[in-house]
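Entry type: protein chain
Record version: 2
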Amino acid sequence: MPSLSSLRTLQRQAFSVRNASPSCRRYASHGSGPHYNEPTGYLFGEKPLPPGQKRKKESWENVWYVGMYGSMLLAAVLLYYKPDTSINSWALKEAKARMEARGEKP
């Protein structure tokens, strides 16, 4: 079994070889500086238009509005008409049915 000092020497050599060649280095930003949009101070990065001009919508915006608000509306309708599956309502119906079967007044 190799000694501890020889293992440390091998580790130092491997580390120095690995750091010596810049082509082997890997960075989260892929090694060539920041790749993000710098903050401009404008909402969504759009400069305000001169007075009297209207903003032109992009092609995907109407699809997004219909999809987002349509799905919210569909979810609201489905939640409104959701069947009642609580244990309390089932037990109440079952108790009334059994009382009627025995001839008692519910």
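Comment: The chain has three helices and no strands.
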